[in-house]
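Internal ticket #5521
Category: modeling
Description: The requester needs a full-assembly model to guide mutagenesis choices. All entity lines are attached below as received. Residue total reported by intake: 256.
Assigned to: D.W.
Attached entities:
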Amino acid sequence: MKLATWNVNSLRVRLAHLGDWLAASPVDVVGLQELKLPDEDFPQSQIEAFGLHAAWFGQRTYNGVAILSRAPIVDVTTGIPGFDDPQRRVIAGTVDGVRVINVYVPNGQSVGSDKYAYKLDWLARLRDYVARELTRYERLAVIGDYNIAPEDRDVHDPAKWEGSVHVSAPERAALQDLLSTGLHDTFRLFEQPPETYSWWDYRMGAFRRNHGLRIDLVLASAALSRSCIGCHVDRTPRTWERPSDHAPVVATFDIG
DNA sequence: ATGGCTAACATGGTTAGA
């Protein structure tokens, strides 16, 4: 099973890229973030024309998440149960016995801001949710745009970024808290090229200069991570005309 | 040097992203 995450930064604008990417690099499941469209505008027929099932949780202008899958998606839930969050950032479903939680973690804007406080609170709620789901599902993946670079090696210029949002100690501690429930960063299960990132600013030629962050992650429960045989960032769509600022991340599992 | 780019909403200028 190939399981991917991709922040498309507007599904409307990126639909052709999505189709081209899926045709060139088929995956079994992909979690999308930043749909930026309401549920009634979700391009269901076009996604089905790609040969995929879909479950979505959209929102006008901001946020919005979806799961696309070759096989049917069952037991779909949206949001974090018990958390009345007006921002639509979480969708979960089960595909071929694997539970997939797809998340779009808040950006946080800047350290100390209201949005930063919301991000930390949100991450605490996600942690509690994941801890509960780990007791229900042995094979669980928590994928998405985390808006946190786990370590300095996930940052192109750690000195410049030190203390900033996406790398600050409280954010990294919150991510470690999430991992400590029993998840593994599949990217780090394997030797990787140095300076591998998943997001590059649109400005200042950041992609050309590889000035990026690795903030898009495929996390897997212990049982699922034992079957993981690879994880990589696919930079190809980031080279296309009018790209998303994020690249897809793909993890492969040998689960028969 | 708080700039630089992109998308949405709106229709020119602001908000948000990361």
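Resolution: model delivered.
Comment from assignee: The CA atoms of residues 183 and 221 of chain A lie 5 Å apart.
Ticket closed.
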